[in-house]
Write a structure and sequence with these properties.
Blueprint: E1 2-3, E2 12-13, H1 16-26, H2 30-33, E3 43-47, E4 54-61, E5 64-73, E6 76-84, H3 87-95
Parallel strand pairs: 2-6
Antiparallel strand pairs: 1-3, 3-4, 4-5, 5-6
């Protein structure tokens, strides 16, 4: 687990249909989720996945903790999903 540097928003990519579905399911789309990377205390955690390596980023937007699952593809951050952070993730964020 580690703190993360700011990342320019133009380095993100995502599936627009998946972003809309994420908004319906979790209340946040991938455009809004890019604000996580503006959090000075953003935390990065390795995630388990069968296939390509994935990471979970835990941060705050407004007053809510969010977790974003991403992978790196060709130098861009590909957002897989974003949801409210679990309690264990919130604790990890607060303790880091």
């Amino acid at each position: 687990m580690s703190r993360e540097e700011h990342i320019a928003p133009n380095t993100f990519e995502y599936d627009h249909a998946k972003s809309e579905a994420n908004k319906v399911k979790h209340g946040i789309d991938f455009v809004e989720a890019r604000a996580l990377w503006l959090d000075d205390n953003l935390v990065r955690v390795a995630a388990r996945a069968a296939g390509e390596p994935r990471l979970v980023f835990i941060g705050v937007i407004g007053e809510k903790h969010w977790s974003a699952v991403i992978t790196n593809r060709g130098g861009a951050i590909s957002i897989i999903s974003v949801r409210r952070a679990r309690q264990t993730e919130v604790r990890a964020y607060e303790c880091e």
